[in-house]
Design brief:
The structure holds two protein chains of two kinds. Chain A folds into two domains: 34 residues; 203 residues, Alpha-Beta Plaits, CATH 3.30.70.20. Chain A is 30% helix and 17% strand. In chain A, helix 2 runs antiparallel to helix 6. Chain A is globular, with a radius of gyration of 22 Å. Chain B is mainly alpha-helical. Chain B has a single domain, classed as Formate dehydrogenase/DMSO reductase domain (Formate dehydrogenase/DMSO reductase fold, Up-down Bundle), CATH 1.20.1630.10. Chain B is globular and about 70 Å long. The termini of chain B are close together. The interface between A and B is large, with 61 and 51 residues.
């Protein structure tokens, strides 16, 4: 190969490589925002605060309210039952006789949601107000979001559920993956999510929602002044469910 | 080298029976898929904790077989080993069919089959490996069609160009398939080594399958093939098998070494049915025994032993696909490091998965479709050469 050929090949390769890199960047930039990889500092940004010190051990009012409100699939079989909000019990691995702790788990509405990134049809997306939601008319049921979610929050409608308590909300049809919507339909109307409302009715008040971008909201004040935790913060998903007493 | 290609007659009773068997399998798979679509995926073995099952295992297995088969044709097209020209048409045709099989397996696994043909095209997401891969698969099928056309019409320059493209594309296809898992957030998935390991396993299984097809078809149709050609493929298979073993060893050593992954590594290696598949199905039967056969002078040069080794590698790589997909899901994600979940309305700990009858039928159905297309293709297209001989030393082909 003489010098001229070498320069031609090297120049061509550089040009082609640069073009490909820019083309990829251009094509993916459109989706980057939709997949929610940015964290807006202004505008509404919903988050949830869970005060575990107020959560009553045997109370499942939030779970029942969620299922009633959203017609969440339930077949009394742990393999296929969906729990958009669930209550688990934790104990230390190193302390066999130690105290158990109840923890409320739900979709963390991550600011960098892996479920939205992997969705091949953009059925999962982050709304401008930070709520991660699924368009169940678009979801093809590939279940890649369930693989990507590190919190086991995404669940699949394995079969139709004849039970339809809330006729104002859609019946859950089989073949799509869904999760907690933070009751976006209620928040949009100025109402509280069903779980928050139910918890307040019991008098516990362990659950609350608020705007993380509003410095005067309760959630902002608590997260900036108290020791709060988020589940697996180390993963970099920027979850927006904060816990007191975890 | 003057090679003539021919169709098979396809008038015998055995041929028709074979077509009928494949058609019956395809029909059974079609019915199973219809029932799953109507009733819901709960009739399969999948659950909320194990949302992928046999169909995904088969999809990545088929994709692997396709990439490997194309490597064989690359020997002729890219590396100029003209003595492999007789197998090029068959290899590309088989590669195309296995890509179709892979796509079919993925399609029939979707919860909403009715949306699969619209939504992915309308709302394409370039950040999703599940969007990128069908693009790679469909592109590969298109390349195979052009490649076949170039081979059938004996267009030498186009063959050379498209063979090079196909060879490179095949690497992308398999790297991309491995990335579905390797770039995943599960403890037993996340590994940059996995895409490369997928390529190696694909080349091993694809080469093994080609050996079986060449030896089998040439014997059934009374065609001559020089032993040396198969022996060389056997050596190539041995190297691929060794590379697969090396990747597996490094990956597992890494997991066992890193403290936070050690529990997952132990679960993978000694945690249940998948561990039996890993050690006996993959490491011993699927890789160890074939390596012994192929590297041993006496057996490595005997066609029947090379065939035995190939059968074992094809089986071993199927086990490899299973132990990549399933343990990564059944192993629980670590939600609270240092804590244990003692009660939950969901399955939070180690989950289980068992293959259902519906999934087996679906997998057999996909196999039936491509089996039918292959056998039918032998009658319709001039895929088989009259013979395959080594004529002089290998040199530039086209």
């Amino acid at each position: 190969m003489d010098r001229r050929d070498f320069l031609k090949t090297a120049g061509g390769t550089l040009l082609a490589g640069t073009s490909c890199a820019y083309a990829f960047r251009f094509l993916t930039s459109t989706y980057a925002n939709k997949a929610g990889t940015d964290i807006p500092a202004s505008g509404k940004r919903w988050g949830m605060l869970v005060d575990l010190t107020q959560c009553r051990e045997d109370c499942t009012a939030c779970m029942e309210a969620c299922r009633r409100e959203n017609n969440v699939s339930f077949h009394n079989d742990t393999r296929w039952d969906n729990h958009w909000i669930r209550k688990i019990k934790l104990s230390s691995e190193h302390d066999a006789g130690g105290e158990e702790k109840s923890v409320i788990m739900l979709c963390n509405h991550c600011d960098r949601p892996p479920c939205a990134q992997v969705c091949p049809v953009q059925a999962t997306y982050k709304r401008d107000d930070g709520i991660v939601i699924v368009d169940h008319h678009r979801c093809i049921g590939c279940r890649y979001c369930m693989i990507a979610c590190p919190y086991n929050a995404r669940q699949f409608n394995f079969r139709d559920d004849e039970h339809w308590p809330n006729k104002e909300r859609p019946k859950r049809s089989h073949g799509v993956a869904e999760s907690c919507t933070l009751c976006a339909h209620r928040l949009d109307k100025g109402e509280l999510p069903a779980c928050v409302e139910a918890c307040a009715k019991t008098g516990a008040g362990a659950l609350s929602v608020g705007d993380l971008n509003d410095p005067h909201s309760t959630i902002s004040r608590v997260t900036s002044t108290m020791a709060v935790k988020r589940i697996r913060e180390d993963l970099g998903t920027e979850p927006k469910v904060y816990y007191i007493g975890l | 080298m003057n090679i003539t290609f021919d169709r098979i007659e396809g008038t015998s009773l055995q041929y028709r029976m074979l077509l009928l068997v494949f058609a019956a399998l395809a029909a059974a798979g079609g019915i199973a898929t219809y029932v799953v679509c109507q009733k819901g995926i709960y009739i399969t073995g999948m659950t909320n904790r194990v949302p992928w099952g046999l169909q995904i295992v088969m999809a990545v297995y088929y994709i692997g077989l396709s990439a490997g088969s194309l490597v064989i044709s690359g020997l002729y097209g890219v590396f100029g080993k003209i003595e492999y020209k007789p197998f090029a048409r068959m290899a590309v045709y088989v590669a195309m069919l296995f890509l179709i099989a892979g796509l079919m397996s993925i399609l029939t696994d979707q919860g909403r089959l009715d949306r699969v043909f619209v939504e992915p095209f309308v709302h394409f997401n370039l950040q999703s490996m599940f969007s990128i891969n069908p693009l790679l698969y469909n592109g590969h099928i298109l390349i195979c069609i052009i490649y076949l056309w170039a081979l059938f019409t004996e267009k030498k320059t186009l063959t050379k160009v498209i063979a090079t493209l196909a060879f490179g594309w095949a690497f992308c296809v398999h790297t991309g398939t491995g990335a579905i898992f390797g770039f995943g957030a599960r403890m037993l998935y996340e590994s940059p080594l996995l895409p490369a390991s997928f390529v190696a396993a694909a080349m091993a299984s694809g080469t093994a399958l080609m050996i079986l097809m060449i030896v089998g078809l040439f014997k059934i149709t009374n065609r001559h093939v020089d032993d040396e050609l198969i022996i060389w493929l056997g050596r190539f298979l041995a190297i691929c098998t060794l590379v697969v073993m090396y990747f597996l060893a490094v990956e597992n050593a890494y997991r066992a070494y890193v403290v936070e992954l050690r529990g997952a590594a132990l679960y993978y290696l000694f945690g249940g049915f998948h561990s039996i598949l890993f050690w006996f199905g993959l490491m011993i039967v699927g890789l160890g025994v074939p390596l012994f056969i192929l590297f041993r002078d006496r057996t490595g040069k005997q066609i029947r032993w090379i065939v035995v080794a190939s059968i074992l590698v094809v089986f071993g790589v199927l086990c490899e696909r299973y132990v990549i997909v399933l343990p990564g899901l059944t192993h629980p994600p670590e939600l609270f490091p240092g804590m244990e979940i003692t009660a939950s309305p969901l399955v939070e700990g180690t989950a289980s998965y068992s293959v259902s009858f519906a999934e087996v039928l679906q997998a057999l159905g996909v196999f039936g479709v491509i089996g039918f297309l292959f056998v039918w293709g032998l009658k319709v297209f001039k895929l088989l050469p009259n013979e395959a001989r080594i004529s002089g030393p290998p040199g530039p082909a086209v």
